[in-house]
Amino acid sequence: MARRENAEINAGSMADIAFLLLIFFLVTTTMDVDSGISRKLPEKSEDTPEVTIKEKNVLDITVNRSNQILIEGTDFVQVTDIKDIAMAFIDNGGGVSAPKGEQPGEPCDYCQGAKDPASSDHPSKAIISLQSDRGTTYGMYVSIQNEIESAYNELRNKLALQKYDRTYNDLLKDYKDSGSAAVKEKIDFLKDSYPQIISEPEPLK
Amino acid sequence: MSKFKKKKKGLPAISTASLPDIVFMLLFFFMVSTTMRETDLLIAKPTLPQATEVKKLEMKSLVSTIYVGKSKDKRIGGDKIQVNDKIIDVNDVPSFIFAERALRKEEEVKYMTTSIKADKEASVGTILDIKEQLRDINALKVSFSTTKGSDLKSNY
Questions:
Q1: What number is the ipTM of this complex?
Q2: DSSP for A56-68?
Q3: Into how many domains does chain B fold?
Q4: For testing contact with chain B, the best of A34, A45, A67 (most B CBs within 10 A)
Q5: Domain regions of chain A by residue span
Q6: Which chain positions lie within coiled-coil regions (chain A) (predicted)?
Q7: pLDDT per position in chain A (205 positions), as tens?
Q8: Among A178, A200, A166, which residue's Cα sits nearest to residue A190?
Q9: Among A residues 90-149, those touching chain B with beta carbons less than 8 Å apart
């Protein structure tokens, strides 16, 4: 009688088991990406020099506890209006920039705003002040921050298209992919042209 | 010799014996690369507000998350702040950040970001208190966690 060969353990179902586990892990793990609006808080320093800022260089946004928005203390607006107001304010370019050391301030040559002397002088001088109430809801606060951010982004996009034929967002993406110094320079230039100056005073009680 | 029939030689079946190995490799990859350590929320799950101008947070290992939201118990009002696995007071935020810093290399500390995951119903006062605490200890990079979407109306 022929000796029976050692029967091999059937490993065919092993793959099924492994697949089952694999699918379980694929389904249960959430690869959620954390995304959000990033902000850099101002540094705290003891000896803050007193600076006088002209009223016209400040866009005053106030939110009260019923989520109502007041701009410059007079106009009652909706969240969706803020972007246009902010853009008009930042891009106004009615005067000259702050003098850099020896050099005197120069007018904004890339601004496309109304050049209204009663509004901001230069993007580098334009300050947006966001005064909120302690009772304002966080959703409202984020919405306003988002609108301000999008105003800056759109202005940077416009300038980037004009100068480099590429939007600011594309440049950011390019920089992330390539990390080249030339792209970084462009991004820095755009950031310098429209610097984000947002001030948040103590909230109203 | 008719006793031993000549076996008909067909195409041999493709061996699937290595399939489990491949699948196991994939399995291990997923097991290792995905972090299951999503902290258990002690507060009600915050509904993040929507925003259009979102930036992805790079370098997840350098992000410390602060959750702000309502208590699970509906009878308790006010905003609760959670870090790791406990609910804390605003004044404890600095010690949390210090603890987070201690886990990182010294040269990485300046790249650390604090992600605030707050419910859209939370009050700004709480958020600004946290921001003030973060300013005090020089943790200046902050990200307000949002979901991407253009429906800003749903935020308030």
A1: 0.75
A2: GGEEEEEE-TT--
A3: 1
A4: A34
A5: 55-151
A6: none
A7: 555 667 777 766 777 887 888 888 777 776 667 788 888 888 877 777 777 888 888 888 888 888 888 888 788 888 888 888 888 888 887 777 777 767 777 777 788 877 777 888 888 888 888 888 888 888 888 888 898 989 888 888 888 888 888 888 888 888 888 888 888 888 888 888 888 888 888 877 7
A8: A166
A9: 132-143, 145-147, 149
